[in-house]
Structures are given as structure tokens and as C-alpha cells.
Amino acid sequence: MRLALVHGRPHLYEGWSEAELERAVTDLAAWRVRRFLLLNACGGLADDVAVGDVVVSTEVVDLQTAPPKHEPPRLPVCDAAVAARVAAALAPTMPARAGVYVAVPGPQYETPAEAAWLAGYGDVVGMSTAPEVRAARRAGAELCLLSLVVNRAAAVGSHEEVLATAARFRAAVGAALEDVLCARWLGLTGGLSTTADPSSADSPAASPT
Length: 209
Prior knowledge:
The chain is of the alpha/beta class and 209 residues long. It has 5 helices and 8 strands.
């Protein structure tokens, strides 16, 4: 299995343009990558989501764009059956379930009132990923999005604590990636290799936060 890996991502609140936020995906798509595994760290909104859980997103609710007249855009990621299959593949390593990711502009964490309002849209919340999903869908690529819960929304002690929590679960997430890829794309076989040939249409791409 050949992979193209992208480490880190820019964020909207840092002042990047839409094209710059989408660049990693658009460049890989131009090299004929048609499968994208996206990862991010997030806050839990749903009552049954705990720190250390992974939510496999079926869609992204995009609150990063200009406020809509009625409902915010919902960007499809994968169908519920696929998300459930990926969550089952993660289960031996860490708790996981299907759900919905809500993308907000940031950079501040949510207040209790904001978290209660956002819970009406989805299960977890974060400050990234919507641009990559938009770019991948525009390119006709297939997606998988894993969101690692590193704090409860509106219950953050400090940013350093959030980073430390993410670091604590990094190895577990990494150990599960091969199973995730093979569950999302049933035709994939073989061990992971980071010496990817990005010109291959069969190369998935992993883009962590």
C-alpha cells in the first residue's frame, strides 16, 4: 500500500486564503490521488463522546464560511455504513463511532453556551478540515475523516493540556491506520509504505492536524 503523507495543516484563523487552506489536497489531487484519509483533533459535543474517542465523520457542518440565510453547508464525507465499518475497525484499539464534525473559525475555544448550540449540529467540533473536504469533493475524491476527541467542548483547562492529550493518543491512532484504510477501501491490501508514488491513482493520502 503506497501513501503520500502530509504533516500538519494551516488554519483559517491564521489568515490563510481559501486556496492556501486547500493546497495540500488540490496538489495531491492533481497528482491523481483519489483517496484521502484526513485526521484532526477536536472537542466533544455529544454527551456520549469522551476524551480518547474517535469519531468517524459522515459529514462536516461548515460554520467557517459566511453565515448562511438558513442552514450551514453540510459537506458529505462518507455514508453511515462506511463510517460504521471504519469505527468497527478502530474498536480493538480505541473507542470509536460514526458521527458529524462541526467546523468553526476559531481560534478561541467554545463557551458553554456556544457548545450547547453547536451540539445541535454535530457530535464534535474543531477549527479545521472543512477546506480539505471541499477540495476533495470538488476533485471527485473519496474520503475518510477521523476526529480524535482531546477535550470536552467548553471544558478546556489550557491549550497545553489539549496538546498533551493529543500526544498521549498519537501512537494508538497511528497503530490503527492500516486497519482504517483497509476498512474504508475494501480493495486495499498490503502493508503501509511511506515511499508513495503520488502519480498512482491507488495512493491514499493521510493529512493529520
